[in-house]
Specification:
Elements: H1 2-5, H2 10-17, E1 23-24, E2 27-28, H3 31-39, H4 52-62, E3 74-82, E4 85-93, E5 101-107, H5 121-131, E6 134-138, H6 150-164, H7 166-169, E7 171-181, H8 183-197, E8 206-209, H9 220-224, H10 233-243, E9 269-276, H11 280-292, E10 297-306, H12 318-333
Parallel strand pairs: 5-6, 5-7, 7-8, 8-9, 9-10
Antiparallel strand pairs: 1-2, 3-4, 4-6
Length: about 325
């Protein structure tokens, strides 16, 4: 029903939202998002009492509303060894993913606390189809059960696993990219910075969808979009508390990639941000810092969108944005 409602004219969606079109500066909120936020405005969360398990269950249920999974894409699961335990990596493939194709190792969003390969199943399937590449979605361990650096370590070891098993997996080891959304974008950026420092093989490219890049949480957009736009400032503070061992870790570039002194010689990047997102400014600043450091970057600014739009492909306008993301990433992965 929600998907059908989103097809209504913008003027009617604004009327149903009960408000004039919301604006911040010169940015105007995309009417379908304004209506969606109206439908979900009663989902107020008390972060003083919320437990990770409660948030995870709610997030999984919320993500059941998703576009249709691509009919030509299939998948299979792998259990891989990481630091004395095992995690799940889901491999997506299609008739277009021939032997020796490129690959994308994907890290889901969710503030390092919520989300899994199921909440991002449709998105990773979509990426497989549109990139004509195999996608390996990583079910890294979550906080607070496993705080920093465990999620990053898991992602790094999963990337290494795809690299070391490229022949058996049927992918070109020289064309393996890394990517993620939100916290997954943070893990991707941190992975690239750390692997460069350790002189390890870098991803062919990096996909950063509305990434977390500075856990000080002091940018202007954090306060401009503190409430009412899906991701809130309170949620970010809650995620940060559960991910970090102490606030002193905020200064670590592997926690806050924007603070890295040297961002030169990193993989080409697609950075996509949303205008009505608390993380907007830090994502935009990271893209600009990558560019000024001499890296090849496609920086896409979606002024009327909200955080998490990549999982909302049923919203008019989102498929076109995702197609542009895939088109540019695909070029970088060649």
């Amino acid at each position: 029903m929600i998907k059908l409602l989103m097809m209504l004219p913008n003027w009617l969606l604004l009327k149903l939202s009960g408000k004039k079109q919301i604006e911040i500066g010169k940015r105007k909120l995309h009417p379908p998002f304004q209506f969606l936020l109206k439908l979900t405005e009663n989902l107020v969360t008390d972060f003083d009492t919320l437990t990770p398990d409660q948030f995870r269950a709610g997030y999984l249920e919320q993500n059941r509303i998703a576009p249709k999974f691509p009919s030509g894409v299939d998948w299979k699961d792998h259990q891989i060894e990481v630091s004395g335990t095992k995690i799940l990596v889901r491999e997506y493939y299609s008739p277009q993913t021939k032997e020796g194709c490129p690959a994308l190792v994907y890290f889901h969003g969710g503030g390092w606390v919520i989300g899994d390969i199921e909440t991002h199943h449709q998105l990773t399937g979509y990426l497989c189809e549109n990139l004509e590449a195999k996608v390996f979605s990583v079910d890294y361990r979550l906080s607070p059960e496993e705080k920093y650096p465990v999620p990053l370590d898991d992602c790094d070891q999963a990337f290494e696993w795809v690299l070391n098993n490229s022949d058996a997996l049927g992918v070109d080891k020289n064309k393996i990219a890394a990517g993620g959304d939100s916290a997954g974008g943070n893990l991707t950026a941190a992975l690239c910075i750390r692997r460069k420092k350790e002189n390890k093989t870098l991803p062919k490219a990096q996909l950063l969808l509305y990434p977390v890049t500075d856990l000080h949480l002091q940018k202007s957009s954090i306060n401009e979009c503190a409430e009412g736009f899906f991701l809130t400032k309170a949620a970010m503070e809650w995620f940060r508390k559960h991910y970090l061992n102490s606030l002193d870790e905020i200064k670590n570039p592997l926690v806050s990639p924007l603070l890295a002194e040297d961002l030169s010689n990193l993989p080409p990047a697609v950075v996509s941000t949303a205008g009505f997102d608390p993380l907007r400014d830090e994502g935009d600043e990271y893209a600009k810092k990558l560019i000024s450091s001499g890296n090849n970057v496609f920086h896409q600014e979606n002024h009327g969108f909200i955080h998490g739009f990549a999982n909302l492909g049923y919203i008019p306008g989102v498929p076109q944005v995702l197609n542009e993301i895939c088109s540019n990433l695909k070029k970088m992965m060649k």
